[in-house]
Amino acid sequence: MVAIAIDQFRPDYLDRWRTQFTGGLAFLLHEGVFFPHGEQDHAITETAPGHSTMMSGRSPASTGIVTNDLGVTDSTAPVIGSSATGASPRRFIGTTLLDWMLARDPNTKSLSVSRKDRGAILQMGRVKAPVFWYSQGRFSTSRYYADTLPAWVTEWNRRDPIDRLKGTAWTLSHDPTFYPEPDDRAFEGGGVDRVFPHVIPADSARAASQIIDFSVMDSLTLDFAIDGIVALKLGQRDGADFVSISLSTTDEVGHKWGPGSREMHDHVLNVDRWLGQFLDSLGRLVPLQRVVFTLTSDHGVTEFPEAGAGGRLDLAPRVRALNAWARAHGDSGLRAGAEAGLIFGDFAAAATRYHLNVDSLASGVATEIAAIRGVRRVYTPAILAAAQASDLDAMRWRREIPPGFSWLVAVSVEPHWVLAGGHSSTSHGTTNPDDVLVPMLFRVPGTPSARVERTVRTVDIAPTLAAILGIRPTEPVEGVVLPEVVRHAPKR
Ligand SMILES: [Zn+2]
What we know:
20 helices, four-stranded antiparallel β-sheet, 2 domains, alpha/beta, ten-stranded mixed β-sheet
């Protein structure tokens, strides 16, 4: 079972460039059941919440992964051989597909690889499995999982491919006339490094930190994953093993140059080619007619507002005002913050400390925010509790915010707006279709390929994979088994 996540991968990319694919994306589209209308059907369409839905069958309100910042960072679990912030699934609640597989077969082997900690950790739930991500020039793991790196990881790091790549350039894989997208849009990268070629720094330390912005990073992640599959002897047993791979570079490219950029077009063609090489390598280890593949993404992306439509909403000034107001009332412990439209803080504690009326504070702040240009809906806890099921935004916020989480207001913006200030990058994170829509694809040996236009949800992935394996989730899930995928699966 191989689960592939491509970070910030909009489903329209697969249609726009379908005829140009020759590698892994071509194989999966040709053999798989493709749902172009998958939804990360929750409000904060960011990496950590998105990855937490994929293999759990549950929304962030249930997985406990509310935002990126409240995702996997954990100072008590340092990264081995790195000074980067530690990471673990400490905040993740409940189980995933891997737990369900282990419940049936304790000998189930697994591996998770990503450039990002949250892209590697969250698909595996809390299981102390082989989970690796890129940190400061090396692949590593945190002390939640292990105290030392296995020999195959040390050996991959010793080869140091980043050192060989420093000073090289990302150049187009076709003639410039091949690409309908303009190379130079004035707003790309905040006006910096807008056109090809993009040169990786020649300095080793800068190359190690900046290579994550370059297309080639995904080829390193896939190369590392193959080494792990070989070393751990995955797929060599009489029983199913599980591999999760999350490719992160589409996210960097999308933030910096936007979904309409020549960079994104060229990068996705590279991903197709490298995924093809990965499948060739995998096929030499495990016959591909014995491998189930699934492909999805953690969120989409909204085009740069500077490209013409929409605008930017930055809630940071409102949060600063809230904290200043609390300090003026003698309370330095409110710790209000905002991420992707949600203003949160220790409001419940403040209510106890000095009889703060949180309901009236929320109403006042909501009224202020509702008057800002670009704001479409504002919810307070009271408004959200009373919302009707027909209110799509409200339902997405309900599936986002866990019970007991202390928050003040939740904001949904107009189409084409981003919840980010500045001007150097575009973003995702809203309840709008550009950010919510993701591809979902399942390649199951024996199931004919198909394109299914109805709307499905990423919480459906895990229960569907469980059905293919003939196992059941060990706890209630929100997703459903997709009949288009399992009806031809071999009975077990
Ligand atoms: Zn992401």
